[in-house]
Amino acid sequence: MAPPDLPSFGKKYLRLFADYQGPTTLRSCPLTLAAQREENIEMKRVTLTFDNGPTPGVTEAVLSILERNGLRGTFFMIGEKVSAPGGVALMHEVHRAGHWVANHTLTHSVALGDRPDAGYAVREIDEAQWRIAACATPAKLFRPYGNDGLLGPHLLSRAATAHLLRGRYTTILWNSVPGDWRDPDGWVERCVSQVRAQDWAVVVLHDIETGCLAGLPDLLRRLADEGVTFTQDFPDSVVLTRDGHPVSLDPAFIADAPTSHDITR
Ligand SMILES: [Zn+2]
């Protein structure tokens, strides 16, 4: 199969928030345009995501905290952990609570760009999707393994990208990695700073033993004090593919991406 067409490098930065018209409540308010603009500048959105679970003994507690705060997010699950003891039951619990169950690869071991053969990509993506199928969102949310939350060409291969497009996966990245697993004392403060620094933060947390659990109540209090709006959706700026089409797909995230020379030849 031919590789997918890729948008030219850097365009995604120009498209950031181009379609954003502000929260519905503000759109329907009889405010002047100037006042609306001022309000929109103040209004921060936050999308919470929980990666690398499900983890018995941890995910349930994260769910309780979210329920107490009336919040819903997305759980990007590792296929092998879903199949481990207790995994399937936890996945159903996450789903029943109204969170989105999403795909975070089968093994979470070697980034797709670091092993660019098609067989590996298809297995890592489809086998995990099969294991979460009973609860997965129809949009087939997929997040590649980032290897410490890094954004770069290791995230995808050309074969993986073609497969995500062909399979109509919604490929989701992130723009906030506060580091809950490596800095238990500092990650909450770092997260608040990262939220302040952008209009719509897509935050990566982890429902693993060494993850966000202990600091999560504090984080949610801090973000509520900041007056953020929590949402379950994702801004286009972190969506690489959706429904068979590139959104913010960028060759900078594809290890063996065609160069401009390859494309024009
Ligand atoms: Zn991960």
From TrEMBL:
<dbReference type="GO" id="GO:0005975">
    <property type="term" value="P:carbohydrate metabolic process"/>
</dbReference>
<dbReference type="InterPro" id="IPR011330">
    <property type="entry name" value="Glyco_hydro/deAcase_b/a-brl"/>
</dbReference>
<dbReference type="InterPro" id="IPR002509">
    <property type="entry name" value="NODB_dom"/>
</dbReference>
<dbReference type="Pfam" id="PF01522">
    <property type="entry name" value="Polysacc_deac_1"/>
</dbReference>
<comment type="function">
    <text>Is involved in generating a small heat-stable compound (Nod), an acylated oligomer of N-acetylglucosamine, that stimulates mitosis in various plant protoplasts.</text>
</comment>
<feature type="domain" description="NodB homology">
    <location>
        <begin position="44"/>
        <end position="231"/>
    </location>
</feature>
<protein>
    <recommendedName>
        <fullName>Chitooligosaccharide deacetylase</fullName>
    </recommendedName>
</protein>
<dbReference type="GO" id="GO:0016810">
    <property type="term" value="F:hydrolase activity, acting on carbon-nitrogen (but not peptide) bonds"/>
</dbReference>
<dbReference type="InterPro" id="IPR050248">
    <property type="entry name" value="Polysacc_deacetylase_ArnD"/>
</dbReference>
<comment type="similarity">
    <text>Belongs to the polysaccharide deacetylase family.</text>
</comment>
